[in-house]
Design brief:
One of its GO terms (molecular function) is DNA binding. Keywords: DNA-binding, Transcription, Transcription regulation. This is Regulatory protein, luxR family. By secondary structure, the protein is mostly helical. The chain has one domain: Orthogonal Bundle (Arc Repressor Mutant, subunit A). Helix 2 packs across helix 4, helix 2 crosses helix 5 and helix 3 crosses helix 4. It is elongated. The N and C termini lie far apart (about 35 Å).
Length: about 90
């Protein structure tokens, strides 16, 4: 640019903004799988059977998902529902 400014490709800007807005990008593939099963309405026991893991493992995955999605415990919020909404938006 002749005036000394900087030009950034619009596609580069779009990709940077898209990455920043996607909270699911921080989830592991297994966490995404667990979240997809939560979105199907599955209980922890059903998720454990489907993935052939213990319910304790499922609980750990869910705790990690909620932390990565910045969904701390709150009396008025249903964190699993909020996680599913994030999944559906992603």
């Amino acid at each position: 640019m002749a005036a000394g400014g900087t030009v950034v490709d619009p596609e580069v800007v779009r990709q940077l903004l898209t990455r920043r807005r996607d909270p699911l990008r921080r989830l592991t593939p297994r966490e995404r799988e667990v979240l997809a099963l939560i979105a199907e309405g599955r209980s922890n026991a059903a998720i454990a059977r489907t993935l052939v893991v213990t319910e304790a493992a499922v609980a750990k995955h869910i705790a990690s998902i909620l932390a990565k999605l910045d969904l701390p415990p709150a009396g008025d919020d249903h964190r699993r529902v909020l996680a599913v909404l994030a999944y559906l938006r992603g």
